[in-house]
Structures are given as C-alpha cells and as structure tokens.
Amino acid sequence: MNKFVLVIELIILICFNVVFVLFNGTDNSTSTWITYAFINIALLFPFLVGTLKFRKTDMSASAILISGIYCFVELIVGIILLIINPDSWIWPFVLQLIILSIAAVLVLSYLAIDKK
C-alpha cells in the first residue's frame, strides 16, 4: 500500500471524527454511536482491502472497487441514520451489519478465487 494513500485515508478519518464530535458532541444515542462506528469501519475498509495480497491485478481492482462502493453506500446510509436518529438501535445495527457482511463476503470471495 502506498504511503501517500495511507496518509490520505488517515486525514479523511481524522476529519470525519473531528466534524462528528464538533456537530454531535459526545452525548449521543446508542444508534448514533453504532452508526459512527460503522462509518469508521467503512472509511478504513478500502485501506484494509488494499493490504490484501492478490496475485491477479483484475481481482485486486475488483476488490478495491467493491470496498469503495461499500464505503460510499455506508456513508450515505450512515448520514441518513444520523439525520433520522432512530430511538431503537437494533434496526440501524442490523442494516449496517448486513451491508458490511455483503461487502466482506464479496471481497473474501475475490480473494478465494484469486488463490485458486
């Protein structure tokens, strides 16, 4: 992984966390903190996928594309959930866990196919 990409990832992560705390403070509902955690996972996901070792570049590109799509989808879903701020934490958790699971299974599938 390129050090430049790592620095950009860290800058984006730091900016998101600073903006989140400035706008929302630290006294938030459980659903807000769950959404916050999933957005942080989504921001780290492309970096984590980029550290996987693929033999074929097309598999690597596909996995990185999936991680980018997941990051974008989670950001949209997360922002909507932060705006709605539901009373129950269960359905935001399940929704975001399903989205993360789909992305992880797809990336791991590409990794398994690449190893064959």
Describe this structure in words.
It contains four helices and no strands. It is mostly helical. It has one domain (3-115). It is flat. The mean pLDDT is 88.
Please give a quick description of this structure.
By secondary structure, this protein is mainly α. It has helices at 3-24, 30-50, 57-84, 90-115. Helix 2 runs parallel beside helix 4 (90-115) and helix 3 (57-84) runs antiparallel to helix 4 (90-115).
What is the topology?
Blueprint (H helix, E strand, L loop, with lengths): L2 H22 L5 H21 L6 H28 L5 H26 L1
Helix pairs in contact: 1-2, 2-3, 2-4, 3-4
> Beta-strand percentage?
under 5%
Q: Spell out the helices and strands N to C.
A: HHHH
Helix content: over 70%
Which regions have little confidence, pLDDT < 50, spanning 5+ residues?
none
Overall number of strands: 0
Give the CA-CA distance, first to last residue: 23 Å
The gross shape turns out to be: flat
Provide a count of the helices.
Answer: 4
Class of secondary structure makeup? mainly alpha
Average pLDDT, all residues: 88
Query: How many domains is the backbone divided into?
Result: 1
